[in-house]
Amino acid sequence: ASDENIQTDLVTLTRFILEQQRSLAKQASGELTLLLNSLQFAFKFIAHTIRRSELVNLIGLAGATNATGDDQKKLDVIGDEIFINAMKASKNVKVVVSEEQEDLIVFEGPGNYAVVCDPIDGSSNLDAGVSVGTIFGIYKLLPDSKGTINDVLRSGNEMVAAGYTMYGASAHLMLTTGNGVNGFTLDTSLGEFILTHPNLTIPHTRPIYSINEGNAAYWPKHIFDFVNSLKKPQPSTGKPYSARYIGSMVADVHRTLLYGGLFAYPADSKSKNGKLRMLYECFPMAMLLEQAGGMAVDDKGQRILDMVPSAIHDKSGIWLGSTGEIEKFLDSTKGK
Ligand code: AHM
Ligand code: MG
């Protein structure tokens, strides 16, 4: 675009959340706004660190002890530290649950929120330059709580906000505060997330399935049969589904949100409760998908957001995506 065509009235994430706060007069304490600001700082910092570390690893820039990365902190540890420090500094957060921390963290001082997160999900893909992401969900503390495990052992329905940032060719933030989904893209020169996908909705159907078929021998028969049925020419189109699996949840869900289709990680005889974590992987993605007009259920077809974890790192099987595709899965699970 020529200079004359430059968009000069950008909606930054900060502007967006301030405007949202003003329109939600009754909850306009501004605390969630401040918390979202601290979150976006963590995302920018992690995005920058991932970019930089690729170079550090490849050419051994100053500060790296060796080119193999042995003496460097692993990126998921750095991501975790960045996240926890940002939440601590915000003074609006009392409780943090991180995939990288066995126990719940409770901060001293003020704060009315609990944040659950996977700071760098899909980190096994990092060395190949595949997109990874931060997944997060936010609960308001229970009335009169000073911050305990009960603030996070709650159903997904009680989350007040959730989303992810995918660190790919650009950093993409998909956010819901329970009022639809909005997508932002980081403009690195401005240092701002810019609203690029307002009111995002997922296509109602799309013949794409995304599942690790290497586990097929461990699946229950009805799941095996269902996935097989997708590989046969479909009555409506005469063509089979396409398979797409990156192996990085944020990237697979991102594609599913934008293009439609089905993403699943079911439980199997090897991983009896599935692989993905209920609190900070399944719930935030389920909330986003539903807010975008899609669905998210477990292997038995129960709604993900209705589940209640009994421990912070509990897992669940998950099927999420376009309503048309999930309904097809639900039909196939009836009575199984
Ligand atoms: P992680 O939290 O250890 O990174 O694992 C979660 C990742 C997800 O991003 C992805 O959907 C899944 O593991 C892929 O698992 P698999 O390699 O078994 O297909
Ligand atoms: Mg993870």
Shape: globular
Report the oligomer.
single chain
Estimate what percentage of residues fall within beta strands: 15-25%
- Based on secondary structure, the structural category is alpha+beta
Major beta-sheet overview? 8 strands, mixed
Rg calculated over all Cα atoms? 20 Å
> Which ligands does the model contain, each kind named once?
2,5-anhydro-1,6-di-O-phosphono-D-mannitol, magnesium ion
- Helix residue percentage: 25-40%
Count the E strands: 13
H/E series, N to C? HHHEEEEEEEEEHEHEHEEH
Across the major sheet, the strand order is 2-1-3-4-5-6-7-8
Number of helices in the DSSP assignment: 7
Q: Quote the distance from N terminus to C terminus.
A: 55 Å
Unreliable stretches: 66-71
* Average pLDDT metric: 92
Structural commentary:
It contains seven helices and 13 strands. By secondary structure, it is of the alpha+beta class. An eight-stranded mixed sheet has the order 2-1-3-4-5-6-7-8, with helices on both faces. The longest helix has 29 residues, at 31-59. The termini are far apart. Residues 66-71 have low confidence and may be disordered. Bound molecules: 2,5-anhydro-1,6-di-O-phosphono-D-mannitol and magnesium ion. 2,5-anhydro-1,6-di-O-phosphono-D-mannitol binds at residues 99, 118, 121-124, 212, 247-249, 265, 275. 2,5-anhydro-1,6-di-O-phosphono-D-mannitol is lined by residues 99, 118, 121-124, 212, 247-249, 265, 275.
Defining traits:
single chain; 336 residues; alpha+beta; 8-stranded mixed sheet; 5-stranded mixed sheet; 13 strands; 20% strand; globular; binds 2,5-anhydro-1,6-di-O-phosphono-D-mannitol; binds magnesium ion; metal-binding
